[in-house]
């Protein structure tokens, strides 16, 4: 094939046009890539800022909650102390409360007192159960009477000279009679102390008699 000047020039123009098209295409691709990179960086920066402020917000919220929780705990602690003082004061006030006039509430007054002048066992025990801080609480009732068995004292005084050993055994097996025995309690000699229920003493209010080691008979005193 014979190449003249026109053919060479036409071939060169063809390649130059191709080159221009390729350079223009490459330029467009680079510009698009730069735009994509800029958009990506912008979105990434916004995401990082969003996460940072999100964590910062919840951290500040957590600090506020912790602060108010500690403050509430201290306030509750001091309020609880003051409430305990008020409850104690109210309990003492109920103990020292004067007896109501029988003319105002005769049924309530008569129903809580036995004929002997002592408060009934149910009334006393219910008030003892409801009281956890103090040993017993008596409201609207006279103080219980103390009964002393003089016969047992005289017998012990008369028998001191003759039988000292028997008196020691009796002192170990019997307690001092400060009140009449309950009808449902067995006799003192039938109270083995290993079958008694050990309790905190409420001496003048307990209807059962104690054994020698400080137990009470287990028939009535389990509450």
TrEMBL record:
Listed A to Z, the keywords are: Membrane, Transmembrane, Transmembrane helix
Please verify whether the record's keywords include Membrane.
yes
Which parts of this chain are annotated as the region Disordered? Answer: 148-188
Q: Where is the composition biased (Low complexity)?
A: 149-173
Q: Which domain of life is it from?
A: Eukaryota
According to the record, the segments passing through the membrane are 51-79
Protein name according to UniProt = Uncharacterized protein
Organism per entry: Dictyostelium discoideum
């Amino acid at each position: 094939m014979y190449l003249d000047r026109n053919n060479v020039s036409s071939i060169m123009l063809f390649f130059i046009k191709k080159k221009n098209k390729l350079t223009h295409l490459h330029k467009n691709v680079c510009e698009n890539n730069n735009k994509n990179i800029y958009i990506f960086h912008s979105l990434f920066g916004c995401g990082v800022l969003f996460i940072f402020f999100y964590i910062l917000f919840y951290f500040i919220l957590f600090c506020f909650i912790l602060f108010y929780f500690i403050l509430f705990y201290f306030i509750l602690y001091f309020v609880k102390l003051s409430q305990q003082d008020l409850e104690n004061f109210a309990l003492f006030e109920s103990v020292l409360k004067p007896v109501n006039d029988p003319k105002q509430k005769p049924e309530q007054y008569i129903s809580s007192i036995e004929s002997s002048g002592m408060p009934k066992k149910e009334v006393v025990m219910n008030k003892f159960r409801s009281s956890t801080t103090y040993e017993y609480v008596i409201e609207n009732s006279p103080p219980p009477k103390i009964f002393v068995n003089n016969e047992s004292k005289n017998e012990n005084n008369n028998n001191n000279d003759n039988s000292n050993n028997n008196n020691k055994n009796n002192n170990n097996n019997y307690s001092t009679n400060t009140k009449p025995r309950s009808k449902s309690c067995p006799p003192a000699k039938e109270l083995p102390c290993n079958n008694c229920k050990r309790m905190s003493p409420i001496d003048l209010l307990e209807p059962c008699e104690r054994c020698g080691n400080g137990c009470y008979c287990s028939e009535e005193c389990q509450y």
